[in-house]
Design a protein that fits this description.
The complex is a heterodimer of chains A (131) and B (387).
Chain A (H helix, E strand, L loop, with lengths): L8 E4 L3 E2 L1 H15 L5 E5 L5 E2 L1 H16 L3 E5 L3 H9 L7 E3 L2 H10 L3 H18 L1
Parallel strand pairs in A: 1-3, 2-4, 3-5, 5-6
Chain B lengths: L2 E7 L26 H11 L4 E7 L16 E4 L4 H14 L4 E7 L2 E2 L3 H11 L3 E6 L2 E9 L3 H9 L11 E4 L3 E2 L4 H12 L10 E4 L2 E3 L4 E2 L4 E2 L3 E3 L4 E2 L4 E3 L2 E3 L4 E2 L4 E3 L2 E2 L3 E3 L4 E3 L1 E3 L3 E4 L4 E4 L6 E3 L4 H25 L33 H4 L4 H8 L4
Parallel strand pairs in B: 1-2, 1-4, 2-3, 6-8, 11-14, 12-15, 13-16, 14-17, 15-18, 16-19, 17-20, 18-21, 19-22, 20-23
Antiparallel strand pairs in B: 4-7, 5-9, 6-7, 10-11, 21-26, 23-24, 24-25
Helix pairs in contact in B: 2-4
The chains are: A alpha/beta (131), B alpha/beta (387).
């Protein structure tokens, strides 16, 4: 179960995300979305204007990533982006992190308690055998 | 005793902000049906002031505060001649026989007890009395009309300096600094929750719900008290207006949108299926109070505004009507068919219809039904993934 071996792609979104720039951005990230189990982080720290087409593009990217068993996470949301995502009821669909580093770490560093217990148990049970 | 009032309005929004909610200053923006200026003039009239004159800084000839009448008492003035015109107005009042002139600069909206103020001024036998709120002087003065030099000194220093020492009258009544969107929102809340003396315009159709004449609340829309819907405003089907929200005149809240603890300023349009909370919506801009962000929204599907001219509004709606049918036929014939949404969609899960095809996005990973298809440990990963 080696989650961390796959690369995480971090992409910074442009300052203005309207229908034209959203199309261009989607074209840029398309190769990463079509890989097996894509892991993407979009950095929205520079976004000053985000419209419905931009939000639609984000949802499309997330949908594509999920189709291939991957995930898309958002990081460093500017107030403008956060307000628009909240307004369009889409902020709850994404995992949102304070920084891109946190978002990248979350792909590998996160293990739920249940899984951690299981791994710990496996480790404990295998240790005496090894000895 | 001849007491007159002079109200000055030249306080604009914070010039440092690149985006403004409205071209009008806060004192001229309607809150629960009336602008703070109108409310102040009405209070002065009720208190029996002989003459009330407002000098309003405006580049165009007709300031919008005159919408509900009071044409005779509002004088528009250009920014460079504002203080000169204000001083002249004061001098005319003094020459016209006024003994006391109450000078109010807005900015701030306050419900001063004018009788007590005048009594205080007379008792102190001072030339000029200034009002203070919680120890801080505010720009409200009571001036003896015969003391023109003191008045001139005040006007020439833009109310920052008085020639003689002026005693402070402590105001214990309602006060709102009206310095930005947060204060504007607070004023709406205070009016709707009856903390301010001033009341919303219109009829109270249910306890706490005020609806002005000509407002349209479509079938299926909900207005939850306390709330206000202004004249000719429209709350469309399945929209919800709740928690001290105010939809001002000619504003429109489109289908399925939730307006919670927000103010929709006059002529503003809020798109369909949105979640507007803790905000003030202006003309193509939105101030989110929780995030303390004032942003410009250029997408007309989200936030937009109607024209102030009735003719242009009629043309726009006629155009929208004529293009609606061909657009629907085109979509019906050539558009991609969308799968029927299952009945598990709740208001929380739905995204805005303004987002077009992606609006039907189904977050299968968060879906409780879909979660059953995955191994149990994977479902746990997704369920707590946001933490």
């Amino acid at each position: 179960m080696d989650i961390s071996s796959r690369p995480v792609v971090v992409k910074r979104m442009p300052e203005r995300v309207n229908s034209r720039t959203a199309r261009e951005f989607l074209r840029d990230v398309q190769p990463f979305l079509t890989t097996d189990r894509p892991q993407l982080v979009f950095d929205l720290s520079q976004v000053r204007q985000l419209d419905a087409a931009g939000v639609e593009m984000l949802l499309r990217c997330m949908s594509e990533a999920h189709k291939r068993d991957g995930d898309l996470k958002l990081a460093a949301l500017s107030p403008q982006a956060a307000v628009v995502l909240e307004l369009t009821r889409t902020e709850r669909l994404f995992e949102i992190f304070e920084t891109s580093t946190d978002a990248v770490r979350s792909f590998s560093g996160f293990l739920p308690n249940a899984m951690r217990q299981q791994l710990l148990h496996q480790k404990n049970t295998s240790a005496p055998l090894a000895a | 005793m001849d007491i007159r009032a002079l109200v000055l309005v030249n306080s604009a929004w914070d010039a440092a902000e690149p985006v403004v909610l409205s071209p009008l200053p806060p004192a001229l923006l309607e809150v629960a049906g009336k602008s703070p200026l109108q409310r102040t003039i009405e209070r002065l009239n009720e208190c029996g002031f002989e003459q009330v004159l407002a000098v309003v800084e405006a580049e165009d000839s007709q300031p919008p505060a005159t919408r509900n009448g009071n044409h005779q008492c509002i004088v528009p003035a250009s920014s460079d001649r504002f203080w000169r015109i204000a001083e002249n107005a004061f001098n005319e009042m003094a020459q016209g026989g006024a003994e006391l002139v109450l000078l109010i600069r807005m900015g701030a909206y306050t419900e001063i007890d004018f009788e007590k103020l005048v009594q205080f001024h007379l008792n102190q036998q001072s030339r000029v009395t200034q009002v203070a709120h919680q120890g801080q002087p505010i720009e409200v003065f009571c001036i003896s009309a015969s003391r023109r030099n003191d008045a001139a000194s005040l006007f020439r220093s833009q109310l920052s300096r008085c020639r003689s020492e002026c005693p402070l009258f402590e105001n214990k009544e309602y006060f709102n600094a009206l310095s930005g969107p947060r204060d504007l929102r607070q004023l709406a809340i205070d009016i709707l929750t009856l903390k301010a003396e001033s009341r919303p315009v219109g009829n109270q159709v249910r306890p706490g719900v005020w609806v002005a004449d000509g407002a349209i609340i479509e079938k299926g829309a909900r207005v939850v008290a306390p709330a206000f819907v202004g004249s000719s405003a429209r709350v469309r089907s399945h929209a919800v207006v709740t928690r001290c929200s105010a939809v001002e005149h000619h504003a429109q809240v489109d289908c399925g949108t939730v307006v919670e603890n927000s103010t929709v300023l006059p002529y503003a349009y809020v798109g369909a299926g949105l979640d507007l909370a803790h905000s003030v919506v202006g003309l193509g801009s939105l101030a989110n109070l929780r995030r303390d962000a004032l942003i410009e929204i250029t997408d007309r599907k989200l936030i937009s505004f109607a024209s102030e001219t009735p003719g242009r509004r009629f043309l726009n709606s006629a155009m929208a009507f004529t293009t609606f049918l061909p657009k629907q036929i085109w979509h019906g014939m050539f558009g991609k068919s969308q799968p029927q949404q299952r009945d598990l969609q709740t208001a929380l899960r739905q995204t805005s219809p303004a987002l077009g095809s992606a609006a039907g996005y189904n977050a299968s990973a968060c879906d409780t039904e879909a979660a059953g298809e995955f191994p149990s440990n994977l479902a746990i990963v997704r369920r707590y993934g946001h933490q």
